Amino acid sequence: MPFDPYLAARLPLLAGLAYPLDAEQAARMAAFEEDPGPWSPPEGIDVVTETASGPHGPVPLRVYSPAAPERALLWVHGGGFAAGSVDMRESHVVAAELAHRARARVVSVDYRLAGPDVRYPVPLDDVHAAWRHLRSEESGSTPVAIGGASAGAALALGAVLRERDAGARLPEHVLLAYPFAHFPNPAVDDAIAVELRELPPVLRFPPSSIEGMVRTYLGRISDLPVEALPGSAPLAGLPPVTVVVNEYDELRGSAELLLRQLAEAGVAVTGHLAAGMPHGHLNRTPALPEVDRSLHLFAAQLRAMG
Description:
This protein is globular. The chain is α/β, with parallel strands linked by helices. The protein has a single domain (5-12, 44-304), classed as Rossmann fold. It has an eight-stranded mixed β-sheet with strand order 1-2-4-3-5-6-7-8, with helices on both faces. Helix 5 (151-165) links the parallel strand 5 (144-149) and strand 6 (173-177). It is built from nine helices and eight strands.
């Protein structure tokens, strides 16, 4: 499918943009990120803050609860391990929408971000602590899932691997949006690579950018722990996994390889191509049709848990 027409019409706003953005470039980026219509939080969702105890100190959580929730989800935002927050749309909008659409108690994790003083395993430890906290709060009969986007998908899957290896109760489902699960990043097909080269640089993930994310998270690019980028881990014995793949995304290679690896390992997998979308489309709102479709799929998978 061609690049989403609404986004394509706004691509000229990104001409010449390069990080770090100056004030004029930041204004153009903000204009590009505007959606076709406004978003209002769903009614009837109570939002509170909680704290989980972790090995590196308290882990802040933001909890979204509908009336009489029937299931639960731990959700982990992306941001290359070093950016993002529970305020970004990929966290706040996704959590609120899934709480409403799936009648789920959704817990969003404000994990410590990687940087000079924070390396692996700290972000993963925070996510794992949040998972244990959520699981301890829910009754044994409540189905509980875990999920995340981009780097957050890697953290979520890493926490599941820890639980599997510990012989603990696993989540009933794993929801992954455009996961970053491998290093080096697998190449995309030639036809997609040609189209990606036509996109503005700020929408792309060249090898140097991906290497920088890995160095920031782990402090190195060799001898990487398998739970840090779980595409290299043994995957047998995992619960069902749903993976949303962005069509126009260098990280598509990682998402598609992960789907094949999971299937080969005997894991029940569902893949969905977010047609016409660049990386990070859940950082928009359901006013964009493909965002709405992706959220609809995730909500359906949550409801199917019981």
